[in-house]
Amino acid sequence: MAADPTSRPDLRVYLAVPDAHRERAAWALEALLARARIPNWRLVEGDEDVDLALPADAAQWDFVADREPDAERDPLAFTFWWLARVEEQLAPEDAFDEHGRFRFERSASARAPHAVPVDELAERIATDTGLARAPHADGEPTWRVVATHDIDLPLRWTRVGRRRALRSIRNDLRAGRIFPALRTTLAYVAGLLPGRDPWDNFAAITDLERAEGAESTSYLLVGRHAPEDGDAELHDRGRSWIGSERGAALGDRVGLHGSYTASDTPGRLAAELAELGARTGASHPDHRFHYLRHRPVDAWPLLASSGLRSDASLGFAEQPGFRAGTAHPYRAWGHEAGAPLDLVVIPLVLMDATFDDRYLDLRDRRMRRDICMAVLDVVRRHGGCASVLVHNDRLCARGDDGWTRLYRELLRHVRSQGGRACTAAEAAARYRDRLPDWRLGA
To answer: I need a labelling partner for 384 at 20 to 30 A (CA). Which of 35, 47, 362, 416 fits?
Structure first.
């Protein structure tokens, strides 16, 4: 039986930073020690006995655009820069795409897409100082993947959906992609027959996951305020997907998919959360933005004030990887308040749409698989917990382009390597368990 980590004495930590940076430094330290599985620690003054004192350099807290702090001179400034997304806060407008998303090519991550410098720093500190980590409990997974689905398209065969399919067939034929065109044609013909819509497939996805010992979170899009949010018929008919009986039964397996403009329209996010609750008869405090459209520095306080407990939007649309330099969750930082927020950020490291022609344009299924496995291996090696996204319209339906098979392989790989595919709610709860009570205001 593993020892109870709560019975261990507190690690005494001294912060040698000026008072002006103390709160930010303590938040960065919180994240580093959580990664090192050290849940019990407290801050002490310099004249007390100290177990850990990290290098400090006030100059490293004078952040400038396009330059990260020196991790050796001040590891907490380095950690803060990555996790609080100072890089994006200071970035010029041309560093963001037409949807207002931070461009991968303009990020520090572009130098090494699969690097996790924050996690590597945490592990180096723990090793160099001989810090005792809390052991994993018997049978506890050593890493986690938050399996997620964005329900942008709860139904395929609306009027707009049929036009979308015909355009897809036309474009594939023009590009010489015969087999994709044939798959879509067969699906289109089958859709003319009476029967269940192929994208109304929550039960089939759930059965697939249960067979692999997995759970997931599905983010539901309930707001329609821009063309990117979908057509009116889709939203109207899709209400049946999240009726009160089904929604209440799903509980923590459902979250809100904030609409395209929810991140920059006051009051919209809270209204959509209330609407989702009204439709389902339940509370769903986990979240991801549609199109991943948000700027974290501005959106995190909005999410926290709306009563959401987790957000899984922090990833790149155009590239798999680790946008905040970590494969672990962490608490969001409120720049204006100068304090941590009651919101757990779950990094998004893989998304099916990234492989589409608008981004990587990678159709080779073996290459897709190799990239996905490489990213998951980073999460595994660092004992992390990160999110992967496969949309419902890619799963358990005709013409899935191999995603159902790949998703099943990913889930099997996670379990075979000592991990667990879990919900966003579980991930957020597990991260909070790694923090001392005093950091959570208890």
So the answer is: 362
